[in-house]
Amino acid sequence: MASALSTCSAGGYTGSGANFTPPPAVGCTPLRDPLADRAAPAMEPCLSLPLGLNSIIGAILKPDDKSYGANVVSTRTTLRPGTYCGGLHITRGANVTLMPGVYVMKDGPLVVDQNATFTGANVGFFFTGLTTGLLFDQKSTISLTAPKDGPMMGLLLQEDRTLLSSLGALTGSVLSLVPLDGKGRSKPPPGGSFVTRVYRIISDNARTLLGTIYLPQGRLVIDSSKPVADMSAYTVIVARMINLYDGPNLKLNAQYGSTDIPVPKGVGPSSADTELTQ
Question: What is the spatial distance between Cα 218 and Cα 198, in angstroms, rounded to a whole number?
Answer without folding.
Answer: 6
